[in-house]
Amino acid sequence: MKFRYDINALRAIAVVAVIFYHFNVPGFSGGFLGVDTFFVISGYLMSKIILDGFDNNDFSLKEFYFKRVKRIIPALLVVVVFSLLAGTILLFPFELKTLCKTSISSLTFVSNMYYWRNSGYFNPAAKNNHLLHTWSLSVEWQFYMIYPIVLMMVRKVYLSNKRLFKAIIIALTVLSFGTTLLVMEKGNSLGFYSFPTRSWEMLIGCIIVLFEKKFIDTVHLHLRNAICILAYIVLIACVVLFNEKLTWPNAYVGIPIIATFLILICNCNFTLLSNRLIQFIGKISYSLYLWHWPLWVFAAGLAFNKPGHVFVISILTLCFSVVSYRYIESNKKLFYPYKIIACTAFMTLVAALLYVFPVNQYFIDKKIIALANYQASHDEEINEQMKRGSCFLYSKSNEQDFSNTACLTLSDSMENILLIGDSHAAVLSLSLRKKLASQNKNLLQATTSNSGFFLNPTGRDAKLVNYVLQEFIPQNHSKISEIIITKNWLTLENDQLKAKVLELVGYLQRFNIKVRVIGQTKTYAISYPTIAAKEIYLSKDLNNNYAMTESQQANTLLKQLLPSSVYVDVYDVNLTKIKTQAEGYTPYMYDDNHLTVFGADQLIDYAGKNGLF
Fold this sequence. Notes:
Domain SGNH: 403-604
Transmembrane segments: 7-25, 31-51, 72-94, 141-158, 165-184, 190-211, 223-242, 254-274, 286-304, 310-328, 340-357
Distance between the termini: 77 Å
Strand content: 5-15%
GO cellular component, one term: membrane
Radius of gyration: 28 Å
Strand order of the largest sheet: 1-3-2-4-5-6
Structural class: alpha/beta
Domain Acyltransferase: 5-325
Number of helices: 27
Largest sheet: 6 strands, parallel
Number of domains: 2
Protein name: Acyltransferase
Number of strands: 8
């Protein structure tokens, strides 16, 4: 196959787009689409290799597999080894165990399925996973393993009836794309991660191979050049203008795919494309892709991910990638398939052993480890705090688990205050109950993790929400002096949030009941106890590195929406975040957004002093 400068240029565009998207560089909000471009390129090259082999009657499945082993695994293996070594030094034992699991899934090329089961690609917490980017390698590897076998099954059709073969490939492409849209409409990240729903992008590459000769022979060079230039402009515009909300999950993702398709089928090698820098970046694009993400995540863990740090991390990525390309990718002495497979099996075993025996547990202070693991070791306390399973229905609860007697018994001698909402309301219940009891007041609680306590609810707990809002409150409003509402307000889009909150508050105020809305608390990209443990371990302030700006935006929106007589702003309350005791540390949150009793006590004290009850 004749070398094509445009393919290397496409690789350069794709990898720069992905890297700068991950590095949060302005102007690259759609940079993740670079992966889609890589998929089309891979589909084109693999189809070219296989179909040329069919034409020449010299295709060898074993040789094809061995070449993929030599091309993909060595550099990946080095990145995994580096990540495990760095993780042993910089991570906590439970984080190292997670890294071991992701390392195993990466080395066995099933990481796409691992991440589908455990996290969404655009989930903030996923951005702290050191090998998240290997999901695309797993998709490609699965394609490399299955695709040649599928083509060999229809080899006779390809050699004897090209028209039928083209129809088969087009049908498979349409089927895969249609499946993707159906899966993604249901909000399932399987459509993003899986090989079947991604294979259409690689099959587009096969379509290019099947039609490129006729296209080049039919379409005049000047027109092809014009189409190609327009396609480059569209592709770059997608990188600049798109974001995850505009693409996955919908058909807009087809636009950059079509642009890549046109660039490849036009086969225009402009002088600019042969520029040394562009070709160099394209040449080392695989190493750049492999190295940039773990370096960025480890740097972020050290609070080294501010805008001013991007240049330094980019240079580090470039240096690691050049060394990787020179001494790993281009080193022929390393390219013995069976040795590569043996080394991969050995490292998989090492990762498994490190998972069972995380060695860093022996040189990190046990109090710090306990803090990082706070939620797992305080589950019973959290159950009691929320009244989980009785006054708070969660994912494992049934509606009949809700106890009217324990949660909604009205007092004739005390003032009754009703707390409604989701888990953010539930975590306040114990602290609020204690505070109200000291004032001779009775707390009623109806909280659920599913429906969010709005009018016209849907979902698992809708029956309970309807009962409380449509029956209990209307029938007992004269005995209820106040209703307190709170939830994780981030679960709603802005317009939806405005409409639902105003509707609920207006509805409740019709009963002449005092209504107070407790605002959005801070939320974090990862569990707060882990952040606090890192701060102590590294002697660095990391709070702002992981704080989610969306929380502040939700708080601002609610402040503008509701009068101060209704809204209780708690976002900027200066809560003590860590309590230090001889036996260990107590954080103010037990995960990335829920207060512990220690944190809830402080918030209720503040809210009480500001007219909450």
